[in-house]
Write a structure and sequence with these properties.
Blueprint: E1 8-13, E2 16-21, H1 37-47
Antiparallel strand pairs: 1-2
Length: about 60
């Protein structure tokens, strides 16, 4: 798996486009509450880091 951050996915919250992210390694939500894109990116990078270095993934 390449060294990358979890990909963002657009969701519609009350007519507003917000973003969330799920780690492909462990399958857990990285961004718990959908946010505007800049906040979602910052939270994903700070709270999770790279997917290839995910410590929550099951072997």
């Amino acid at each position: 798996m390449p060294l990358s951050y979890p990909p963002l996915k657009a969701v519609d919250v009350d007519g507003v486009k917000k973003w969330t992210a799920v780690c492909r390694a462990c399958g857990q939500d990285v961004v718990q509450v959908p946010q505007l894109v800049k906040a979602a990116v910052e939270q994903a990078r700070r709270a999770h880091g790279h997917e290839a270095e995910c410590t929550r993934a099951q072997p």
